[in-house]
Amino acid sequence: MQLLLFFYSKNMNEHRSITFYIFITIAIVNFTSALPQWYNGTDGRQYLIEGEQKYNWFQAFHECGRRNLQLVEIENQQKNEVLIAILKPIFGNSHNLWIGAIDEYNRVKSFQRPFYWHSSGKQMTFSYWSNNNPDNDIGDEHCVHMWERKANYKWNDHHCDWPRLGYICEDHHLSSKVLGEKVQEITNLADTLLEEYYVQQESQIESLRNALNRMENDELQLKADLNTLQIKLQSDINSLLSESNLESNISKLMAQYKVEVNLKVDERNLALIKTNLELSGAVEILTKKFGKKLKAAKTEYKNILEK
Ligand SMILES: [Ca+2]
Predict the structure, then answer these.
(1) Alpha carbon distance, N-terminus to C-terminus of the chain
(2) pLDDT in tens, 221-232
(3) Cα gap 62→39, rounded to integer Å
(4) Which of 41, 52, 105, 228 could bridge across to 82 with cysteines, CB 3.0–4.6 Å?
(5) What are the C-alpha distances in Å from 27 to residues 24, 32, 126, 164, 266?
(6) Confidence of residue 33 (pLDDT cuts 50, 70, 90)
(7) Exposed (0-12), middle (13-18) or buried (19+): which is 247, by Cβ within 10 Å?
(8) For residue 98, which of 152, 166, 39 has the smallest C-alpha distance?
(9) What's the rounded Cα separation, in Å, for the pair 281 and 292?
(10) Could you give the CA distance from residue 299 to residue 177 in angstroms, rounded to a whole number?
(11) Does residue 265 carry a pLDDT above 80?
(12) What is the 244 CA–ligand 1 centroid distance (Å)?
């Protein structure tokens, strides 16, 4: 372009200023197109993606690092799917992109050797290797990338100094943003658990309230029953006073009333036992059910913090 302008420009000064302008424009365009772009994932996170193939693994790691980011760590299938959903519309079926995993320079040519996420230091548990990888070719493939030769962004172990791959960055796992997200997630879980506890507690309090009301009613009923019996006893004694065999009849009468009073007291005891069972049942439901829930919540919190 500069040569063409040289031949067609009659005025040298004009030629110089136009050439300079075009040179600056091309430089700006080149600089702009070299910038990695942010993309939104369906997981609510953002990923910075550089699709041009000109970095080795260390350079890519530093490109992320100097932006306070980290090379992406793909800890599970869900995150892998989120990334592939971002990448396919940009690059199609696959692309060469460094991700944040290495094998700690393990020279053993084993498919089973462990890999690690370099920023967090965690051992890789989820993997998405392409066929016949990680093969550690010539014992010198220690860095992991998504491979353009394999469909669906399958992974390959590769020479770390291979200088022609793009990369994916994400927020650093120790950034206040990621830590804030984790705290928020735990807070939401705790709030949900507390809400469930309150609902359960309210229902148990209601059943306790009902049981106590019933106890109170039973108490009043027993008093009324005993009072009726007492009045009947007095009336029977009065009518017996005029009869012969007084002593024997009174004995019979007392025995009969003893049976009736005992019956009432037994009924009362049964009601008390039933209420007692309800009370302890309500407490047991609260302690057992939420004991389990709290234990599950502790595991959940631990998982969130270790993500
Ligand atoms: Ca390989």
Answers:
(1) 52
(2) 888 988 888 888
(3) 20
(4) 41
(5) 5, 8, 42, 21, 100
(6) low
(7) exposed
(8) 166
(9) 16
(10) 23
(11) yes
(12) 117
Check whether the bond before 134 is cis (ω within 30° of 0).
yes
Distance 141 CA to ligand 1 centre (A): 6
Give me ligand 1 centre to Cα 115, in Å: 13
| Residue 150, token pair as written in the block | 């394999």
**Residues across the chain:** 307
Is pTM beyond 0.85 here?
no
Q: How far is the CA of 42 from the centre of ligand 1 (A)?
A: 30
Residue-wise burial string across 2-29, b where 16 or more C-beta atoms lie within 10 A, e elsewhere: eeeeeeeeeeeeebeeebeeeeeeeeee
> 133 C-alpha to center of ligand 1: Å?
5
Distance 99 CA to ligand 1 centre (A): 14
The letter for the amino acid at 62 is H
Examine the pLDDT at 32 and tell me if it is beyond 50: no
d(CA 243, CA 261): 25
Cα 126 → chain centroid: 17
Can you tell me which residue has the tokens 């069972």? 277
Q: How far is CA 304 from CA 135, 182, 188, 250, in A?
A: 32, 6, 12, 80
CA distance 172 to 178: 7
Q: How far is the CA of 41 from the centre of ligand 1 (A)?
A: 28
